[in-house]
Records
---
Amino acid sequence: MSREIVIRPLTAEAFAPFGDVIDTGGAPDKRINQGLCGRYHDRAVLSFGDGRAGISLFDAEPRGLPLRLEMVERHPMGSQAFLPMSQDSFLVIVAPDEGGVPGRPLAFETAPGQGVNYHAGTWHGVLTPLAAPGLFAVVDRIGPGDNLEEHWFDTPWKVQR
């Protein structure tokens, strides 16, 4: 038995309670490099507590739909940004915190060129590319302490379009 989650497009407004959508929406904040480059400035609120920012590369295997969602995780000590290194969409799953456990998850599909930044403490699914390559630059907290909490659902969720 599973419960269902319907995937919807990722928008800044729908995702705001969980983090930031990182994309080139709207006009650039300014033109740089002799006018040949648009700068979309300060698109995410990053936090690292007593740690520091680190950039890692993740190479994840693509997943198919429907997806069986059994677990979500969160990082209480810092934000975590996922920036795809291809123009392929990926699945973003988040859940509100309800007294220290995740509430009903939501699922979003990014548009090509969108990334996300999860705010510290946001319940989220694992990296879920929908096509190869699943290569991402990840900006997150590097530092001491246990910065990972996992929650396994008693009854899995079925995520589908």
Note: The two ends are 18 Å apart (CA to CA).
---
Amino acid sequence: MSKRLAALEKMVAAVPSDPFVYYGLALEYRSAARLDDALGVFVTMRERFASYVPQYLMAGQILKELGRKDHAREVLTLGIQAARAGRDSHAAGELESALAELS
């Protein structure tokens, strides 16, 4: 395990209320080709930090890579809803583009 990955896992345990730490952990898992672990972190994030919009695009991309397009559509749609609720039109546009690429 990389030092960075170990440090992020410790940070998640130490600061469980910070979605950015979870996001960093998920991206590090993705970089290490541990896609199932990354998706597990994103599931936790959706449960705990549903309004943290960046998670949806990354989770959707991973699901697409894994050939799970239907699940990717669901996640991206949830992300669009979260982005609109947060009045983040830029993020909503990125998520809509990612969703359109799945069709």
Note: The radius of gyration is 13 Å.
---
Amino acid sequence: MAFVLDASVALAWCFPDEANDYADTVLRRFVEDDAVVPAIWPLEILTALFVGARRGRIREHEIERAGRLLGNLAIDVDEPILFRTFDTIREVAQTTQLTAYDAAYVELALRLRCALATTDAKLSASARALGIDVL
């Protein structure tokens, strides 16, 4: 069964100082399940990696290694649909007080009726409040 993968979990695999047991557990889930991410996910990941490199948290060559790691996982990027952004995602963002970026993860989990993997406390609480299972 698929699950929605928040960037916070994937970034824990990329930054040594963010490694944690929860992220490792989610990574092992790829043995049996695929992940799905909103269309903004690749840009969130790349931006965080660039900022991390500028701040000395990782080296430039580690960005390439992270890209290979993430590229080898069964991660499907949801097709961006403009009306969803202005209708459903806006509604979720306003209801939960999440950013549009975070609301995109919640909307995707709601639409696909699947669990959400996140280390973000506010995102997790909002998802649970809407009846979404959080891994």
Note: The mean pLDDT is 92.
---
Amino acid sequence: MGQLGLLLCLAGVGIAAFSLMMDFEIITRAVAAGLPEEESWRLAFGLIVSLVWLYTEILRLLAIINRR
């Protein structure tokens, strides 16, 4: 995989981190707008998905770096 794999993995980490940042922004706006409490599970699910995605991308990046 080499350099291309490392670059793609770094891009994945960046996109996942951006997604996590956007999830926090959406949650902040939803709370300010007074979103009903019944809908909070959707925001929590999105946050968990972004955290898991970022975690797996960081693990993949560490594995690529460790192979070098």
Note: The mean pLDDT is 94.
